[in-house]
Amino acid sequence: MGPLKGIKVIDMTTVLMGPYATQMLGDYGADVIKVESLDGDVTRLIGPMRHAGMGPVFLNTNRSKRSICLDLKKPAGREAVLRLILKDADVLVYNVRPQAMARLQLGYDVVSKVNPRLVYAGVFGFGQDGPYAAKPAYDDLIQGATALPSLMAQTGDGVPRYVPNALVDRIVGLTAVGAICASLVHRDRTGRGQRVDIPMFETMAGFVMGDHMGGLTFEPPLDKGGYARHLSRDRRPYKTSDGYLSVIVYNDKQWENFFKATGRDDLRADPKFATFAGRAANIDVVYAELARILQTKTTAEWNEILEKADVPVMPMHDLESLLEDPHMVATGVFPVVDHPTEGRIRSMTPSARWSETKVEPSRLAPRLGEHSAEILQEAGFSTEEIAAMVRDGAAKAVQA
Predict the structure, then answer these.
(1) Predicted local confidence at residue 87, as pLDDT
(2) Cα–Cα distance measured from residue 80 to residue 199, given in angstroms and rounded to the nearest whole number
(3) Does domain 238-315 have CATH number 3.30.70.660?
């Protein structure tokens, strides 16, 4: 079983950032209880689907979880969450603003009294010490606020664009997993839980500026920041005579191998190409010349030449061809599995591997409220109490 076996997580998150983090905790062996509203997580409605409420975004960010459906605005629904926390929960994860948790009377000051060992983890927009503390936040907004569209504009046609991926949600989700696991280590050493905030804005600012701080590192600044190699307009998949190929010739040994493989002794003698410092100072010239060279042969020809020369090269996949990559197939990253209600679906396996603790998804994504009755019974609710909660609209339970 996974390294987090025996850890119970109350997952009060929706959309992508929080569910991505809690799915990883579940894949690592934790018992993750996803608390959903009566309408369910909105990602249930995104994308093509075979049955209502079971869209691909939900299926791929909510495996290894059980679903309980509660109305937290009703006293009985809130009481159910508190009983789940009191029972034996180790972690509570939420991704609404802390002010919303306070309105639900589920802030850290309340739940820490119920369970002092609880790790209370919030993934939300902004640190609570600054003027943006109560602002809403989404991936697009944080991408813009941390300069990513500005950087994209410099590498293309001058038009700012978002990265076509929920980059912020996933990076902050990954950061949350690390912060939660570190908090569990602290809890095991001291016996005390704690509140841990993982803000999107500050996390992504550090992520972006780690590459692009440049001369802004110094005071006074030495330049306006930006990593020239990353911002070069020719840093992109290279066009071959019949397609595209991803190639990077980076260190001196790789360039020497490239010169030999291509017969370009003239470049070896050119100071703009001969040394790392020369290439860094003339990166646009270097990448433009590399682009011209790679247009002279087919993708297959270049792949064979560069692999033989030990120059880093990879195919430029699209979404469909990535699934068929021979390495992906060999390592079983995208297995086709049988979902109990959705039939044959393509799933994903955790990328990390442990020598002592096997990690694999414990279950596929649940139907809305699929485990409500089961989880409430574990928390000590009687059959009559559960029936009353369902009747009064404080809970929803799917019939098996």
Answers:
(1) 84
(2) 28
(3) no
